[in-house]
Amino acid sequence: MDRNDLKQKMNGKPNHISNNISPIDKESPVPIYYQLEQYIMSKIKSGEWPQDSLIPSERELSEAFDVSRMTIRQAINELVSEGFLYRQRGRGTYVSEPKIEQSDVMSFTEAALSHGYKASTDVKNFKVISPAPAILEKLKLSDKDKVYYVQRFRMVNTTIIAVENVFLPLKYTGNLGREDFTGSIYMLLKDKYDYMIDHVDANIEAIIPREKEIKLFESKRKVPMLKVTAVHITNKNIKLYYEESIYRSDKFVFNINIYKG
To answer: What pLDDT is stored for residue 119 in this prediction?
Structure first.
């Protein structure tokens, strides 16, 4: 069922504002727009305002909480920019599909399953190559070493969430085929070769998508994206593989624990 079908099923009726005590404390040092964001997020997380449902209008929220429409708009704009809400011109503002949150060394597949989604993988490119010097250095390889280069589209339902480019040295695995990369690489390396990923040395940065990325994700509009470069390291300190990936940050969140060394 797509968004239009779901809206028709719901007859376009908006969610209601609870008839309880106002969550807005005008005496609080916490900005009112942020309190409004938290109110809306509480409705989304509780399931009271489900995916693709129409939220109350700016006018309704303004009247219910006795705050200016400008403040209401600021709160909604923040949640739209963060991917929790989306707008349809002339119709209103709707609840977005929930984001997938990946924690630490959890794989994409595990992250999707933990949120009740079924992940799928489309292997777009698969070949054996001599990697660039920069990749040889990251994986501590010699210039004679070859790697599997795998480009994968990671999807939830029919939405492309990530485009991954993976570089895995042949010397650590032996013969692998395209079909071996249609699931979790973590599970492949653990189950078939008894490798255990201990930690990931990663860099994560926000990027402005170019036309190239927009086409890769089959998106009709610019969406916020994250670029991730990472070396996956085993419990025996083997730099097992390197990846360069792009994620839709309106659909995907990295949850990273940082400890003082």
So the answer is: 75
